[in-house]
Amino acid sequence: MRDSLTDLKIGIIGLGYVGLPLAVEFGKKYQTLGFDINQNRVAQLVAGHDATLEVSDTELKESTSLNYSHNVADLESCNVYIVTVPTPIDEHKQPDLTPLVKASEMLGKVVKKGDIIIYESTVYPGATEEACLPVVEQVSGLTFNKDFFAGYSPERINPGDKERRVTNILKVTSGSTPEIAELVDQLYKSIIIAGTHKASSIKVAEASKVIENVQRDVNIALVNELHQIFQRLGINTKEVIEAAGTKWNFMKLQPGLVGGHCIGVDPYYLLHKSQTSGYVPDLMRKAREINDFMPTYIAQDFLKQLIKHKINPVDCNVALLGFTFKENCPDIRNTKVYDLYLALSELGLKVQIVDPWANIDEVKHEYNLDVINEYNDEGFNALLLAVGHNELIDICTSIRSEKFIYDFKGLLN
Predict the structure, then answer these.
(1) How far apart are CA 45 and CA 51, in angstroms?
(2) N or C: which end of the chain has fewer CB within 10 A?
């Protein structure tokens, strides 16, 4: 077991939105190897560019002790491994631990006595010790907490946010023994300017992460439900929220499509674990139902507004503005605009998606949809502003007197 940071060589497993910013920061202080099974991703980073735009070309150059590889054998020189792979849900909305299990199998082939494996991927409480570490033991033949050790430090990356970066977001840490917990905490503290919070156990750290997103999911579900009420009452939701927001403890959230890699996914992990323990959490489950229904509600309300404004839906060409899961960010993971597109299409509307941030090839590969990056008026009868990219807001602002624009989030003043 290691008791200092001086001889650490860190391997980051997964170079996506979470792993790459972390690798860049560690690479400024420690020998760091960024590993990803995607050879194209590795080649891109070796060439000095990050397509996710989370890290600039300049920042990549500044991480002087960071190297990249897709070769598992290169990980053998590391003694601390940090796992930042995705944790999706399957078609039945059950946790899909396949990426974590495969990463654990791979680490079982390279882990050595005294090494530490730290997981950052969002999971249900208990997953690290129940689903991941036994796999490492089985493949390696080593014994957990005797030959190798573990930690858990949940990621808090906010894609597209250039103000809240990995170093200035306080980090929760934990370890499988008190000594390892302290070492893991000191390791992160060496790069996290905002500081750390050392949790008492791995399970506590796991639970703390998943409820961060459960809380937001429930609160946004409330606002989405209120929006549907206010629509029926002829009241502007944004104006109501602005008025209520004058009270110091009111949480100013807006109605919206709850997608992405966190809020739209993580609650299902806690729902799964809760139900297997014998408790059915009604509020969490209902919040998910409300938020998952929003694309259908918006499509139906959009159709009503077309009719109200005497626009014939049969001949209506719609520009669906935005496809990524949030504004000013190229991330298309679990975007609910896809569900909105399907709902609009099922109503018989002709829809063209316009998104200046989305990668056209990536959208085609992941969703089999054609997206254009630039808006040009090709006979669109109506626009639906789904994602508040700055460019799209500018377009809507410039043509709002000429076109019918459906702005359910109240992004246009």
Answers:
(1) 9
(2) C
Spell out the long-range contacts of 360-363 with Cβ–Cβ below 8 A and sequence spacing 24 or more.
362/332, 363/323, 363/332
DSSP one-letter code for 60? H
The Cα diameter of the chain in Å comes to 73
Q: Domains in the chain, ordered, with CATH?
A: 9-200 (3.40.50.720), 214-406 (3.40.50.720)
Task: Outline where DSSP puts E strands in 286-333.
Answer: 317-321
How many other C-beta atoms are found inside a 10 Å radius of the C-beta of residue 191?
17
pLDDT tens, residue by residue, 81-96: 999 999 998 889 899 9
Supply the residues annotated as catalytic.
Answer: 262
Residue type, 180: I
Residue type, 88: P
DSSP 260-295: TTTTTTHHHHHHHHHHHTT---HHHHHHHHHHHHHH
The pLDDT, as a whole number, for residue 3 is 61
Q: How many Cβ atoms are within 10 Å of 165's Cβ, its own excluded?
A: 17
Please, which residues have CB within 8 angstroms of residue 178's CB and are 6 or more apart in sequence?
A: none
- Rounded distance, CA 384 to CA 373, Å? 16
Euclidean distance between CA atoms 380 and 353, whole angstroms: 12
The letter for the amino acid at 149 is F
The per-type count for the chain, helices as H runs and strands as E runs, is 14, 13
Region 198-212: mean pLDDT is 96
**E strand or H helix at 352, and its extent?**
strand 350-354
- CA angle 62/57/61 to nearest 5° reads 25
Q: Report the alpha-carbon distance of residue 106 to residue 179 in Å, rounded.
A: 26
For 125-152, the pLDDT digits (tens) are 999 999 999 999 999 999 999 999 999 9
What is the gyration radius of the CA atoms in the chain, in angstroms? 23
Contacting residues for 155 by C-beta, under 8 A, at least 6 apart: 18, 22, 84, 120, 121, 122, 209
Classify residue 95 by its DSSP letter.
B
Question: What are the tokens at 172?
Answer: 């929760």
